[in-house]
Amino acid sequence: MNARQVILDTNVSLSRYPFRRLPLDETPKLVAKLKQHKVTRALAGSFDAMLHHDLGAVNERTARECKEYGGGILAPVGCVDPTQPDWREELRRCHEAYRMTAIRLHPNYHGYTLADSAARELFADAARRKLLVQIPLEMEDERTLHPRLKVAPVDWRPCAELAAVGPTLRLQILNCRLFPAIKAKNVWFDFSMTEGVHGIRRLTDSVGTSQVVFGSHAPFYYWESALLKVTESGLDAAALCETNARRMLGELP
Amino acid sequence: MTIWDLHCHPASFGGRTPEESMAELVKLADRMGVERLCIYLSTLAHTDPTADQLRQHNDYILRCVNHFAHRVFGFVYVNPNHVQASLDEINRCVRDGPMTGIKLWVARRCNDAAIDPIIERAAALKAVIFQHTWLKTGGNLPGESSPMDMAVLAARFPNVPLICGHTGGNWEIGVRAMRPFPNVSVDLAGSDPTAGFTEMAVRELGARRVIYGSDTGGRSFSSQLAKVHGAAIPDEARQRIFSENLKEMMLPILRAKGVRL
User: Fold this and answer.
1) Which of A40, A161, B134, B220 has its CA 20 to 30 A from that of B145?
2) What does the pLDDT look like over B159-176, one tens digit per residue?
3) pLDDT tens, A178-196?
4) Nearest-CA residue of chain A relative to B30?
């Protein structure tokens, strides 16, 4: 990989993971790590969004944290729970007040599926606002979850149908261990949890070369995991690290 | 940094023969800067192998070792449900063959004293003793050892070096379970690259008891190398984990076999 290659990391989180402190769970430390490795932008959600009821406060903190400590590279990503009352106001604030370009959903922690009507309404509204919708299928390996909070991964299968909501809907699946047979130009995947021999190649074979983007799942994961995967793949580093993500964000044709 | 990988499975790399699979494994190892590889198990299908299946697995690994002797160390797969067959395999593959360690997987929990003749034979040959462990939130397989089972084994053999595979997967529990047993080292392989794992292992066990492994091809090299490359630990500790600890553990059997490094 070219040492000058810059990286757009589509999957980082701020604040505290609910079950342990992480070495880089203070924003300045995370930003320092990202800058050390030539990350020029990172889409930053919040671990708080997994379990906090007051997502309005979570989103406000995420936006403020990125502005104050993001070093010019953190782009805030809000969270909306379509099972909560007045969720459309949360979506409006994310888009209009905080100028977010993406939202990150946690259906498995919030108790709905991607096939539910509430989710479909949210997707439709997000599409109208041209927001990228990120869906982490899981936040942690099921086998290591806290035994008092077992949360099954999100069922990704409705994604293919959801992708057809409208041409302006853009979906990104995060933290995917599988190689789903979805080939849609408006659905992207990060490779934070892609594993095994030639894992990224298998993922690109499955979903399309242009649909796979860099995602570290830091600070939950060691950030270096994603970087090393690019090297191990032997694939086009510029596409994996930057240009595919910029297309996803509508910055490149 | 010199990197030795404690935990590799060559059969996941495709190829029509063991030699072809190994060639692909070595190609990726070269790309990722891994110098030496410990390999075991020909496929992941036999969790409770018969005597014949043990031989098949070990024949596969022998072919890999014979073809890549300059890069690879083989561990013989054994099963405490077939003690005599396991002892025969240890004799064939370690005492009389090129292998340098034993692999215990999920056929029978290691707290069971049935395993003892296998440990004794391996220890007598100075073979590396690797025991898989996990502590799964959803429950282990019936014969799958937890780190607490490993603690029982470690207490029975306080003078025998042992390796706790995967550090129990749930590493925050696994590290604590191994802490009282200085004869046990932990293997970092085969779990997600969750930040803080290596730092905790070094903090609680000391860098001398922590060994890098990948569990490739079930895992990538990358996610597992990141546990060491990305950890906030001194470089001296990093080098220990990446190769020095495993080298020191293997040195007696390598010397006995006349292997020069």
Assistant:
1) B220
2) 999 999 999 999 999 999
3) 998 888 999 999 999 999 9
4) A232
Three-class DSSP category at B241 = helix
Q: Which CATH class is domain A7-248?
A: alpha beta
CB atoms B137 and A195 under 8 Å = no
- Burial tier of B214 (Cβ tally within 10 Å: 0-12, 13-18, 19+): buried
B139 neighbourhood in chain A, CB within 8 Å: none
Contacts of A97 (CB under 8 A, 6+ apart): A63
B223 CB neighbours in chain A (<8 A) are 195, 221, 225, 228-229
Considering CB atoms only, which of B31, B191, B226 is closest to A141? B191
Domain residue limits, chain A:
7-248
Q: Where are the domains of chain B?
A: 4-256
Tokens matching residue A206: 């499955």
How buried is residue B152: exposed, middle or buried, by Cβ count under 10 Å (0-12/13-18/19+)? middle
| Rounded Cα gap, residues B188 and B171, in angstroms | 9
Two tokens at B144? Answer: 């799958």
| ipTM of the complex model | 0.97
Residue type, B27: K
Contact between B199 and B231 (Cβ < 8 Å): yes
Residue in A24, A199, A234 closest to B195 by CB: A24
Pick the CATH number of B4-256 from 3.90.1720.10, 3.30.300.20, 3.20.20.140, 3.30.160.20: 3.20.20.140
**Structure tokens given for B76:** 């013989």
